[in-house]
Amino acid sequence: MKNKGLLWMILAIVVVFLAGAVSGVFLDKYVLTRRHEPDRRGGPPFPSLEMLSRDLSLTIDQQDKIKNIFRDNEQRFIELRTSMHEQLDQFREHIKNEIESVLTPEQLQKFRDILQRHIAERQKETDARRKNTQDPPQKENKGQNP
Hints:
The protein has helices spanning 2-35, 49-56, 60-101, 105-132. It is an all-alpha fold and 146 residues long. The protein folds into two domains: 1-35; 63-146, no CATH class. The chain has four helices and no strands. The protein is flat. Residues 34-39 and 139-146 have low confidence and may be disordered.
């Protein structure tokens, strides 16, 4: 009887230890590490009109002029961003083609599978970022941020 109780106690300690280890790994991988990942956009967003107005104590006239500057340059910004995305897509395609040219048929199929998994994972990350962001969508910010 004493051995049975000791066995249950040891089993309970092992279960508690394993639960702690699993929780620690989960927290490290999905909670703590994600918080410190750098923003993939490459830098802080441009300050909004409201932020500039507050921090610089802008007059109404200055606010109007800056609002016009944002509005007047919005289309150029959209065109630049679109052009950059297109150039990056072309560059990625070029690299992919070069890599594919040196692979065997078996490696080529595995490579394409890897790319598909990578694209799916990036899409999930993007969707999660959009879902969790506190920033309003770009279209609702018209005239405030270029």
